[in-house]
Write a structure and sequence with these properties.
single chain, alpha+beta, 5 strands, ATP-binding
């Protein structure tokens, strides 16, 4: 068995789950891993207000769809997650939500980071290695 497969089994994760955890750790350590693994809990009312303000200012497309502490921007392949008082950018890759960068203090900055990463994902460092790790599942 490959090293990645043995590591995933030792962590009681699939290869894809391990790759997700590794990427979360790389972008933000333990707080990013906690946000990745947190269920879509009840949203913080302040977070809802911040997202609403950010999208009024952003003025680009429909408002994001909320689900717990996650806001998905329809048709854009990007998602914001709120955790530890900060905003975490995510993007849709290979049918799953992947961490797209470090936390930001406001949702507009996190959204911009997620959108930028969506445009450059093909050449992003580390993406190829994570794709390989996900194939070992």
């Amino acid at each position: 068995a490959s090293v990645a497969r043995r590591l995933a089994a030792g962590c009681e994760r699939t290869g894809v789950e391990l790759a997700l955890a590794v990427r979360a750790w790389r972008v933000g350590g333990a707080p990013a891993l906690a946000v990745l693994e947190a269920p879509g809990a009840s949203p913080d009312p302040r977070a809802q207000e911040e997202v609403a303000r950010a999208f009024v200012e952003w003025g680009d497309g429909p408002p994001p769809r909320p689900r717990g502490n996650r806001w998905t921007v329809r048709g854009a392949g990007v998602q914001l997650r709120y955790g530890d008082g900060r905003w975490w950018p995510y993007r849709r890759e290979r049918g799953r939500w992947w961490p797209a960068g470090p936390a930001e203090s406001d949702p507009a900055s996190a959204l911009a980071a997620a959108r930028e990463e969506s445009r450059t994902a093909a050449g992003a460092p580390g993406v190829e290695g994570q794709a390989s790790a996900s194939r070992t599942a």
